[in-house]
Amino acid sequence: MNASRLLAQVVKELLSLLRDPRARAILVLPPLLQLLIFSFAATLEVRNATIAVFNEDPGPAAEAFIAEVSHASFVGEVIRVHDSGHQRQLLEQGRVLLALHIPETFSRDRLAGAPATVQVLLNGQKANTAQVALGYLEAMALAQDGRVEPLVTRHDFNPNLIYRWYVVPSLSGILSMFIALVVTALSIARERELGTFDQLLVSPTTPLEIILAKCLPAVLVGFVMGTVMINAALWLFQVPFTGSLAWLALALLLFIVSVVGIGLMVSAIAETQQQAILGAFALGVPMVLLSGFATPVENMPVPLQWLAQAIPLTHFLVIVQGSFLKALPAGAVIAHLWPMALAAVVTLSAATFVVRRRLH
Amino acid sequence: MTAIVLDDVHKRFGQARALRGISARIAAGRLTGLVGPDGAGKTTLIRLMAGLLTPDQGQLRVAGLDPVQDSEVLAESVGYMPQRFGLYEDLTVQENLHLYAELRGVAKADYRATLDRLLAFTRLEPFTDRLAGRLSGGMKQKLGLACALITSPKVLLLDEPGVGVDPVSRQDLWRMVQALTGEGMAVVWATAYLEEAEQCEEVLLMNEGRLHFSGRPEALTERLRHRCFRLASAGDKRALLAQVLARPDVRDATIQGECVRVVLAEGTTGAGAALASLGEVSAAPPRFEDAFIDLLGGGPGGHSPLADRMPAVTTRGDRVSCRHLTRRFGDFVAADDVSFTVRPGEIMGLLGPNGAGKSTTFKMLCGLLKPSSGEARVAGVDLRHGASDAKLRLGYMAQKFSLYGLLSVRQNLSFYAGVYGLRGREKRARIREMIEGFQLEPLLDSAPDQLSLGFKQRLALACALMHRPPILFLDEPTSGVDPITRREFWTHINGLVSKGVTVLVTTHFMDEAEYCDRVALMYRGRVIALDTPDALKARAGQGASMEQAFIHLIEAQAHG
Amino acid sequence: MASRRLLALVKKESLQILRDPSAMLIAFVLPVLLLFLFAYAVSLDIRQLHLGVVLQTDSAQARSLAAEFAGTPYFRVRPARDRREVEPLLVRGELKGYVLIPADFDRRLARGEPLVQVVTDGTQPNTASFVAGYARGVLSSWLAERGLSVPVMLVPRFWFNPEVETRRFLVPGAIAIIMTMIGTLLTALVVAREWERGTMEALLSTPARIPEILLGKLLPYFALGLVATLGSTLLAIHVFDVPLRGSWSTLLLVSACFLVPALGQGLVISALARNQFIAAQAALFSGFLPAFLLSGFLFEIDAMPAPIRWLTLIVPARYFIESLHSVFLVGDVWPLLLRDMLAMLAIGAVMFALARARTRKSLEP
């Protein structure tokens, strides 16, 4: 190991990434833009929903109930329908999320103190959203007549269930993963395509130095971008932070290192930059899907749950979400740090093995 | 009959003026060479004739048509072969030909006959089912030519078809094109390769967007009669060359085997007598290349400021050697039992047609490829075992000038200094040495991609020499480079060799082979001849050129 | 337009597709992987969520409610006697929430006071609202079984997807993502490749006209897209158990309409970027990501802020996903399909006009 040889290569890698203003823009701008757009677009809250109401009851109780539903925060527009055919049509065409059908017995039952039934027809094409809306309606139904709801709900850590508090910290992990993955995946492939790799191999630099020189800049760039996005979450999106920044920084570093190992393997195998990009993409998307970002890991079939445990992003998401909202204690952080450390050791040594073999 | 008329044609790209008023006539039934150094505007002119670019000013008529306005009809009377011919590498030879036959609307009845004629003509029949990507460079060019010839166009435009093609394939291409002019076709052949230009019936000589000469090449060559000499001396030929080039009355000089070829300046009286003090003088017939260099203001001079700064190499012993070196790829033997030794301070050339095993041998020697058997040693060490200090003793310049396009010139220099372990004051001093030695100062902040081929080559050489290696590996160092730049490059190499540096070079250019002390000729993975350039030429007969020697030796091997 | 030249170009492109492993990877391997993941890994269905049940009394009523929670398929219950047992588990993410059945449960039941408290892990808002919603559902059905009145009883019915399986709307959505990749990403890459390898220069010097060159590129990818749709649909129906309620012919018609803007976008990208790397980046940012995030595939468009909602109007995948949901889950609902197809064709027409304007038969920069 020779420090000046290593330094020369690290500087070269960083310059390749950052010297050209356009290349710099391609590296830095899209993730930040994505952070902005996705933070607003990626929400599973229900807002502004259009619903249909088919009221067959002339009594005042029904109108009162409808008025209450109409003013609920998740409802945007209410379409009144007068026959079940129209109601069906609206659902079929996907114009409404759900339709309330109030039978003519509604007011009578309410007066008699008997449970008054309301049929809720939900659009299965949007089953997820419909289910959330149904939850809101059920809470309203139980609390009619000024009665207290028999169930008191409390959402810890995020009392108003602000979706952005979930999305923004998670995106900092996902986006910095893609940056580190693509930067490393392209590094060797680019030199191979340009023909500079041979030039490097005839120089006295050792394979270990080459590998280190490819890893360090990618780790640096990934870590800096991750930090920038975490800061954006703190200051721009005002997500409360309750945990330890030091532990989070350590976790981010370990996470990026393990991702760089994966990227390096892609790079060693890919013949061209084209293949490197497609490879990074074909690995990155499934990793995000399996990480528990979109849906809880325990919802998956057991073999996929095992696979999810092997993905560094899964663990980083737990740490970053916990550090922001839950004041995640050190013990819990460590419980998710060591799988990432293990992943880093495995991917880096595998990558070193592959690169060394490709060198000969 | 005139096939192409050019009338005061101008073309600029942003600030760069590619063509500055070209007027000429190109005749049908003749082979016209479009000659000029790198960046002269040859490709731009050809693209204008093909209707792919629009002139800013001036008029063109190609086969009686305006290439821009009549572009749809033009395509039917013009065949065009771009510099990197657009073959679909994942289609077979047959499929490529079919595609272009269909696109050019060959009549169904003529179909078989046309394809058979072209396949016979190009001698590609045995390879019809091979993917184009798996063909050798020469075969690719022949296929490209066949595709451009599918409908016997009135005008055939060829943009540097000879680049990267070995002499045997080049001879084939030449024969094919000459057969076409006999049928009345106008053929335009752009080239920076002057031995090709010399064989054209007519040449247009361009430099920096202007036309400098138009007419028969002999007319130009004739001007140099009585100004060309061969100078033989018992002493060091490279020292002699430097001495000759330093004289004010010398226009150009090159090494030719054991002699130095000299072109004197115009109006030098007592011609040969002036040189007599240096050695034995004999008159030589002028070549087109001499006239070309003369027309462009003479060669670059024989002094290498870089070599002056380099200390002399002191180590002794064989520098590069290989014994029974063999490399197999599956069933294919790319290099077969190759053995030779390069002595200190020697230039050794590796020559051979495409696919002969030059690159494979070369890569094994510098440790990029593992031999299947046998051994390769550089400075007494087997490089495969990655001894870093042995690698420090070797400089390497790759075919594509391996420069980092995303880094500036200064950053490239700094990177190569660092990767060879230089630091601090020493690093700065070496970088300065290279900047001054190669006159890179004004370009330090440009990206290598913006440089001309000549400067790219200088920079690549600077990067390879940063650590003052006693051994230099050059892989096709001047492919596609014009003769003036090539001379400048060899001036530096000659200067280095005089300091005791050992050079191993692979090349396609025969005049480059002349600079070598010894040449190993490879064919089908084996070394079929290893000798001095003069001895090799002598084998092909009295007065044979290096190119003739090359073809002679290859054909003798192929048939015997 | 000469059909002979067009045919030759189509044949050439088809041969290239068949010989290019990366085209095969994107057209066949990646779709299977994506469909599999969307069918099994990304499931918003609530099953076996880890829920703590803190039972602070031993009354028969309270125990029967606790048993009710344990008996549903939605939750995997971890019983506890004290909330301090479960709170750390919530912090560590091992529980998604817990239900507290208080010591005075029986008295509250008699007086009609709030009965139980549910506490969720709000860090994952979607899961949190599901936990609260399902807990509420369990409680109201427990109350109803006991004849304890609830003022208004909702009788929910999910149309088109009665089992509420997320797979049924995620798998059709995934088909739209796959088609975007084939249509936009592959097309952008192959045209850029012709520029990079210099084959475009050779093509331009032949009598072939621009529309022929463009169509010669598009038709094979159009066919490839339809083949991939067919394959994905067969997988969806027979392996992932998604019903196809509309007709095959409608499905293919809608897919064909979607391929028009998708291919057009690929052409526009390749006309602007004559380099594969930039083309790939542009295709990912302008094609793949919007199809994923701004199409209503995962996230409801109605819930987005207004400027982003307007942006979604020019995302062709939005219309395609709506049509696919309809064809798969509802049937051939023509008013909706016609509207969507018209929108896709209109975007496609703009794309083609752009591509045609930007592609000239010359090398002028």
Automatic annotation (TrEMBL), chain A:
InterPro entries referenced in this protein's UniProt entry, alphabetically: ABC-2_transporter_component (IPR051449), ABC2_TM (IPR013525), ABC2_TM_bact-type (IPR047817), ABC_2_transport (IPR000412)
Alphabetical list of Pfam families matching this protein: ABC2_membrane_3
Keyword Signal attached: no
Chief location of this protein within or outside the cell: membrane
GO molecular function terms listed in the Swiss-Prot or TrEMBL record: ABC-type transporter activity
Organism domain of life: Bacteria
UniProt keywords, alphabetically: Cell membrane, Membrane, Transmembrane, Transmembrane helix, Transport
Domain ABC transmembrane type-2 residues, every copy: 118-358
Membrane-related topology note: Multi-pass membrane protein
Gene Ontology cellular component list: ATP-binding cassette (ABC) transporter complex
Location(s) in or outside the cell: Cell inner membrane; Cell membrane
Family statement drawn from the similarity comment of this UniProt entry: Belongs to the ABC-2 integral membrane protein family.
Protein name as annotated: Transport permease protein
Originating species: Marinobacter lutaoensis
TrEMBL record, chain B:
Signal peptide: none
Pfam families: ABC_tran
Keywords assigned by UniProt, alphabetized: ATP-binding, Nucleotide-binding
Top-level taxon of the source organism: Bacteria
GO molecular function, one term: ATP binding
Boundaries of every ABC transporter domain copy: 4-233, 320-549
Gene3D superfamilies registered for this protein in UniProt: P-loop containing nucleotide triphosphate hydrolases
Protein name: Multidrug ABC transporter ATP-binding protein
Organism: Marinobacter lutaoensis
Lineage of the organism: Bacteria, Pseudomonadati, Pseudomonadota, Gammaproteobacteria, Pseudomonadales
TrEMBL record, chain C:
Residues annotated as transmembrane: 23-42, 169-192, 218-239, 251-272, 278-299, 336-355
Xref: Pfam families: ABC2_membrane_3
MF terms in GO: ABC-type transporter activity
Membrane association type: Multi-pass membrane protein
Major place of residence: membrane
Localisation per UniProt entry: Cell membrane
GO CC list: plasma membrane
Protein keywords: Cell membrane, Membrane, Transmembrane, Transmembrane helix, Transport
Stretches assigned to the ABC transmembrane type-2 domain: 136-362
PROSITE patterns: ABC_TM2
UniProt record similarity statement: Belongs to the ABC-2 integral membrane protein family.
Name under which the protein is recorded: ABC transmembrane type-2 domain-containing protein
